[in-house]
């Protein structure tokens, strides 16, 4: 994964070098000096510093970034049915907070084996397929049959400087960019390196 991210970043080196004082531009020599990188090394050199808009970016190091980005601290706020499936050998997700939430909307499942989004099985005639869809569909069906969703308070939608936003969340929104019905999202996030 780190190799793919490095390759992705290499396509944008000329644009990044236009800002030589940026931490991202200054990190390029070290990044490209590595023949092999772990995802954590990449995140420490690049993502923690230039992986999003400010604030909260930049972070001093990868640990601060991982702590900030960790979803376990928001599990208590979930108010719709939520299923998360992880494997016990996932190289990216080192900790699944199975016993750290009592939120009835949240179901956390840990399988034995599966890697990071793996969960493959061999079917007839040696075909390989993901088995993940079947348990997820069964969970969705069971949830839809049993759920009693409380009435949700909806925020007013406003038009602010051409952006369609929810009241109280003006930093997020979308607008028609005038190119054949395409929608532009992520208000005020033009410097965001999406996907890192």
Shape: globular
Question: What Rg do the Cα atoms give?
Answer: 21 Å
Number of strands: 8
**Largest sheet geometry:** 2 strands, parallel
Number of helices: 6
Unreliable stretches covering 5 or more consecutive residues = 187-196
Count of spatially separate domains: 3
Oligomer: single chain
Biggest sheet, strands in spatial order?
1-2
Helix-strand category: alpha+beta
Question: What would the keywords be for this entry?
Answer:
196 residues, alpha+beta, two-stranded parallel ribbon, two-stranded antiparallel sheet, 30% helix, 17% strand
Explain this structure.
The chain has 196 residues and is of the alpha+beta class. 30% of the residues lie in helices and 17% in strands. The chain has a two-stranded parallel sheet. The protein has a two-stranded antiparallel ribbon with strand order 3-4. It is globular and about 55 Å long.
């Amino acid at each position: 994964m780190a190799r793919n991210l490095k390759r992705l970043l290499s396509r944008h080196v000329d644009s990044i070098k236009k800002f030589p004082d940026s931490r991202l531009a200054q990190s390029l020599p070290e990044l490209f000096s590595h023949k092999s990188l772990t995802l954590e090394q990449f995140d420490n050199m690049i993502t923690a510093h230039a992986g999003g808009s400010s604030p909260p970016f930049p972070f001093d190091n990868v640990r601060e970034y991982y702590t900030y980005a960790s979803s376990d601290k928001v599990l208590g706020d979930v108010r719709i049915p939520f299923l998360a499936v992880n494997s016990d050998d996932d190289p990216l997700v080192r900790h699944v907070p199975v016993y750290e939430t009592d939120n009835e909307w949240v179901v956390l499942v840990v399988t034995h084996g599966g890697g990071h989004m793996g969960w493959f099985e061999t079917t007839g005639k040696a075909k390989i397929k993901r088995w993940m869809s079947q348990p997820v569909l069964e969970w969705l069906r069971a949830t839809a049959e049993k759920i009693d969703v409380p009435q949700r308070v909806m925020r007013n939608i406003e038009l602010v400087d051409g952006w369609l936003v929810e009241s109280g969340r003006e930093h997020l929104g979308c607008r028609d960019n005038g190119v054949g019905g395409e929608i532009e999202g992520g208000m005020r996030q033009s410097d965001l390196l999406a996907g890192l």
